[in-house]
Amino acid sequence: MISLRALRRSLLACALGFGAPLAAYAQAAPPAANADAPVAWESLSAQQQDQLSPLHGQWNQLPPHRQQQLANDAQQWQSLPPQQQQQIRERLQGWESMTPQQRNQLGENMRAFQQMSPDERAKVTQAYQRFQQMTPEQRRALREQWRKANGHPRQSRRRGGSGPTQP
Question: Disulfide engineering: 74 pairs with which of 48, 102, 113, 119, CB 3.0-4.6 Å?
Fold first, then answer.
């Protein structure tokens, strides 16, 4: 049986597993000529629009500095292998479908992970890798065990309707 502490770490790692690739594009991009100027969707190249297509519906609601950052990142993503580009697109779709609360929780989890010692991070990463190797049934059983141990009622696998599934 997995200890409660190990279970918590593995769940944190699962949250980070989804968020870590997002952190790669969330890093600060070099400042543009005018950081306050919004980037029109139509001004993006066809490749940038394709890469950022999951965000098309909310593009105009993004802050201008975020639009510029994503446009710069999408330009760099073009040099990645197609499989990595597809992975980024899927991560963006997951991010776009998250509720603000889920995004905030993911940010908190990422900050907590970054504040851990290297040894703790390595343990969490190993626990996450073990979790990823489990069958879906083993994952469900582990989640249910965690819920019972922590007094949490059974929750839906999807929060907020169209959000990403929990690991």
Answer: 48
Q: Domain count of the chain?
A: 1
Per the CB < 8 A criterion, the answer to whether 65 and 72 are in contact is no
State mean pLDDT over 82-107: 89
Residue written as token pair 């000529």: 33
- Alpha-carbon distance of 15 to 81, in angstroms, equals 25
Report helix, strand or coil for 101.
Answer: helix
Residue 91 has pLDDT above 50, yes or no: yes
109 within 8 A of 15, measured Cβ to Cβ:
yes
How many CB atoms are closer than 10 A to CB 41?
Answer: 15
Residue 132 inside a domain? The answer is yes
- For residue 160, what is the DSSP state? T
163, 13 contact by CB (below 8 A) = no
* Residue-wise DSSP of 127-154: HHHHHHHS-HHHHHHHHHHHHHHTTPPP
Structural domain of residue 46, as residue ranges?
4-149
- What pLDDT score does 51 carry? 86
